[in-house]
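Appendix B, example 12.
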Amino acid sequence: MDKSRRRTVNVVVTCTARKSASASAQLMVRNLPYTGDISTKCELWKERLLSVGSDKRLPAFDLYQGDYWANIRRMVGAVQTKSCIDVRLWIASAGCGLICPSTLIPPYSATFAPYGADTVSSEIGELRQWWKLLSSIRIGNEAHRSISGLASEDPESLLLVTGSPAYLQAMADDLQQAVSKIRHGANLTILCRRGALPGELEQFKVHLTANMRSVVGGALISLSARVLAWLVCNHPLALNRPGIETALRQLNMDSGEFVVPKRKRATDEEIKDFISDRIEEDIRVSRSSVLTAFRRSGNAAEEKRFQMLFREVKEKVNVA
């Protein structure tokens, strides 16, 4: 097929907390001095980000890790066999803004999630302001530093965005500006599992259900990435919103009820004791492998909570 006639699909995914290299103390949001002003806070962050030398930067595609990112890699691999579409991957990073996979960035720790140690803010207005301010960082050679910029450059292209409620809220103003620039409303699709979107964005949402895991597999945390890979692999010619709605309606029909294993809810102390035992056996053990072992033993723990407790135990071990 003539490449000039391939349909362009701009796919925006989110960054991951898990990375292939650890962030330095200065590139952890928790270590930014409190100023009471999100603009000043972001300026300090930008100074720290840009002060990191090129020898300490990695391509974004190689920096991000975990099950979610493994499925993004799978999607990218599948795209290379599809001559009918030109998928362009973009990453919505809470630390760097909108970047492409080849952008060289330093390891960092920043998130829009409300309960993380390195959360940017708990206020929606401040999250949106932070996202807007990040667009002014010239961290790479990207022509576009906003989602609305992608839509403005090619109004006929398809725009497929996926993310958690917190990330979608942070990008809401940018997304609303993109709506005014795309040629057809059906060209914009926002994949999300839960949570309402602000104002006019609600009409562009396609809801993902937990039952879809019976077909695409995996945990809820990576559901959007798995569905995205499934769509690109199986429906490359139907990536506008009506096509996606039809495909996911059928996926829902094909999905049996996902049965959640019955597990005992553990206390913080029980979780920390389990983590301590595993770390004592192997100081290099990963959080994900400990969580998997914990759940297989019949215990329940929400991932964010487990992550916080794992970090707490690990820090005590490092200090000791």
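The mean pLDDT is 88. The longest strand covers residues 85-93.
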